[in-house]
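Example 9 (inverse folding). The structure is encoded as follows.
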């Protein structure tokens, strides 16, 4: 599936005139991404989407980094952090009149996001493409590197909307 980045109004996902996707999987990996996704969701016609699954993404902890703390305790603390991230976004989704469900996942890469979309029976995945940092840009001149959003778009069998996040000033 081709990667398309959009900063314009929402493209039509169902050209046969049935409106927008019924279930959107919104991938939120930080507060800035949550704000960009909320702004985008608010541009949707209110009656077009039946449900938004707010997927709070957190990196899986490595056993080596747990420093003696039980790995289950670390995972639980990460889930709580993910719930706080989603809780900051929930009021805006509710004000827009959209039905939503929250899901917190510890993920390892694009495969996990695509698996969540499949489990949720999402019609579209919405993500924020992050600008590559200086180190990644240098590595990309030697080795081909791809962003997480681009890898999800390649692996997914459903449309992936990649929203642009403003570069840090």
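The amino acid assigned to each position is listed next.
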């Amino acid at each position: 599936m081709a990667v398309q980045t959009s900063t314009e109004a929402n493209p039509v996902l169902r050209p046969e005139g049935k409106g927008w996707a019924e279930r959107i999987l919104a991938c939120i990996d930080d507060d800035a991404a949550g704000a960009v996704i909320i702004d985008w969701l608010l541009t949707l016609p209110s009656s077009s989407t039946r449900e938004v699954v707010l997927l709070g993404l957190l990196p899986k902890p490595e056993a080596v980094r747990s420093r003696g703390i039980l790995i289950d305790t670390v995972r639980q603390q990460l889930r709580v952090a993910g719930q706080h991230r989603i809780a900051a976004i929930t009021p805006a989704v509710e004000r827009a009149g959209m039905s939503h469900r929250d899901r917190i996942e510890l993920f390892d890469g694009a495969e996990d996001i695509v698996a969540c979309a499949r489990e949720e029976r999402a019609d579209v995945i919405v993500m924020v493409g992050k600008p590559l940092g200086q180190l990644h840009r240098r590595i990309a001149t030697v080795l081909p590197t791809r962003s997480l959003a681009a890898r999800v778009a390649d692996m997914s069998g459903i449309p992936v909307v990649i929203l642009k996040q403003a570069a840090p000033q």
